[in-house]
Amino acid sequence: MTSKAQHSQGLLLFRLHNGRQFALGTLKIKELFPYKTITPLIHSEPGVMGAVTIRQQTIPVIDMAQVIGIGAIPQDKIEQSFILVTDCQRKTVGFLVSGIDQIIETNWKQIKPPAKALGKNVYITGTVNVDNELVQLMDIELLLARMYPDADNHTHVAITDLERERLKALNILVVDDSRIARKQLTDVLNQLNISFLVTDNGSNALDIMKKQASEGRPIDILVSDIEMPGLDGYELTFEVRNVPALAGAYIILHTSLSSAISVSQAKQVGADEALEKFDARELIASMLSGANLRVKN
To answer: CB-based contacts of 110: which residues, under 8 Å, 6+ apart?
Structure first.
């Protein structure tokens, strides 16, 4: 069986006003256009410059440099800047950046996780070497969580005692490279008092699944991000389905992308379900589908 998971990843390389280069996956970018006049908003959060109207939709515009701590873009550079419109976590938001370099194609295996020495409060999910320059992948989920801290904080899900007991009986593994996304996912399970294992990358997840299977407790439900450095969600799914001792897991892939493409690819590599993150009720409903399937079997 040949892997269908060798998906290239398009990256848009851009710069902030200090000259530092960053990258963002092209699938997360809805549109890119030169600076246009931004209408200020009253009582807006620091970093929110205002709003613009694009194709009859009004969206907020955020100064990316200010939010990540570099400082607001200088006034004399604003009119030469660009607005990146992202479609992520069911939010359409514009980010002001100073310059656009190029779009490149890479593979998730070429993207390395950020060094642990950087700490937890960095706005990057990985790094990649481009023309001998280390480029950092921007963590849009963390940016959005900092700007809209209450928007996705709906972790309460009502389920019956029977449904809770079905989930508690299962061995669940959660995988996501984004600290914010991991917290969102695990907060839901903690609120329901359901135990789980958690890790931050696909390679570790595969090792955990092999270890659990060897100890007689194979993973029953795997909840994994799609876009991860190293072994991404597609490749992790493919590897799991190719190992008989692991292949019985009910696999739920989730993505911050508002795109049917990711859902289609997830099904192609063997995932049972694919979700746009984050919706607590959809997550639990999918996990219950996996639990119910095990009861029937």
So the answer is: 128, 129
Task: Specify whether 139 is located in the same domain as 89.
Answer: yes
CA pair distance 100, 151, nearest whole angstrom: 29
- What pTM did the predictor assign? 0.70
Q: What tens digit of pLDDT does each residue of 66-87 get? A: 999 999 999 999 999 999 999 8
Q: List, for the chain, all residue ranges whose pLDDT scores fall below the cut of 50.
A: 1-5
Instruction: For residue 55, give its domain range.
Output: 8-147
Whether residue 100 sits in one domain with residue 27: yes
Check whether residue 210 and residue 235 sit in a common domain. Answer: yes
* β partners of residue 103: 12
Q: What is the pLDDT of residues 45-63, one digit of tens each?
A: 888 999 999 888 899 999 9
Cα–Cα dist 12/137, whole Å? 10
CATH number, residue 200: 3.40.50.2300
Residues 73 and 189 in one domain: no
Q: What is the 3-state secondary structure (H, E, C) of 217-261?
A: CCCCEEEEECCCCCCCHHHHHHHHHCCCCCCCCEEEEEECECCHH
Please indicate, yes or no, if residue 156 is contained in any of the structural domains. no
Distances (CA, A) of 149 to 83, 121, 153, 180: 22, 15, 7, 10
């256009």: which residue's tokens?
33
| Total tally of structural domains belonging to the chain | 2
User: What tokens were used for 268?
Assistant: 């192609």
Instruction: Please classify residue 35 by burial: count the beta carbons closer than 10 Å to its beta carbon, then call 0-12 exposed, 13-18 middle and 19+ buried.
Output: middle
Measured in residues, the chain has a length of 297
Q: Is residue 3 part of a domain?
A: no
pLDDT (0 to 100) of residue 159 = 87
Domain boundary among 147, 173, 201: 147
Q: Which of 215, 237, 220, 231 is nearest to 287 (CA)?
A: 220
